[in-house]
Design goal:
The protein is of the alpha+beta class and 166 residues long. The chain has one domain (2-159). Helix content is 31%, strand content 42%. The protein has helices at 12-21, 71-89, 107-115, 152-165; strands at 2-3, 6-7, 25-30, 33-40, 43-52, 58-64, 94-99, 119-127, 130-139, 142-151. The strands form two sheets. An eight-stranded antiparallel beta sheet has the order 3-4-5-6-10-9-8-7. A two-stranded antiparallel ribbon has the order 1-2. The protein is globular.
């Protein structure tokens, strides 16, 4: 799996340096997660999270788009990237787009549902080299779209290491 043309392999440190060379600004590393900031697919000020497994090898990259205060903006961003991912990778293997309260009638109520984690909007694209997940999510009442890349080879290694622990 590649992220921004960079193979998702090697150590967290080496992968972070490659992202830095692409123009991303490192903000710090803690507990196996390197955080960077920069532009992604037309959105400025995105946060990029490069995640390492327990051996220090890169296994996942998440893009957190800027926070959005309106449901229409969240849905537009999500739908736009869903359409592009579908065009590139085919129909998602999993797609859930619903609110816990099925009678949500306006955008203010939709945002309320997102803020309190009662909105499930995500899709999973299964690719040859890994999976890509697109979702509308929140943290500390900030709502945003997140795109996550999971490398299959590294996920398989992580699973094998976990199996050996059992």
């Amino acid at each position: 799996m590649k992220f921004k043309g960079i193979p998702m392999e090697g150590t967290l440190q080496s992968f972070t340096l490659k992202l830095k060379a692409k123009g991303y600004v490192p903000l710090g590393t803690k507990d196996g997660v390197s955080v960077l900031k920069g532009e992604f697919a037309g959105y400025k000020n995105c946060h990029i999270y490069a995640v390492a497994d327990k051996s220090g090898m890169i296994c996942r990259v998440c893009v957190e788009f800027p926070k959005m205060d309106k449901w229409a903006d969240l849905e537009s961003c999500y739908s736009s990237y869903k359409d592009m991912l579908t065009e590139k990778y085919g129909e998602p293997k999993v797609c859930v787009e619903k609110f816990q309260n099925e009678y949500v009638e306006d955008d203010n109520n939709r945002m309320y549902e997102v803020k309190f984690d009662r909105c499930k909007y995500y899709c999973v694209f299964v690719c040859k080299n890994g999976d890509i997940t697109l979702e509308i999510t929140q943290q500390n009442l900030d709502c945003y779209v997140q795109l996550s890349y999971y490398d299959k080879a590294n996920q398989d290694k992580l699973r094998q290491n976990t199996m050996e622990d059992l």
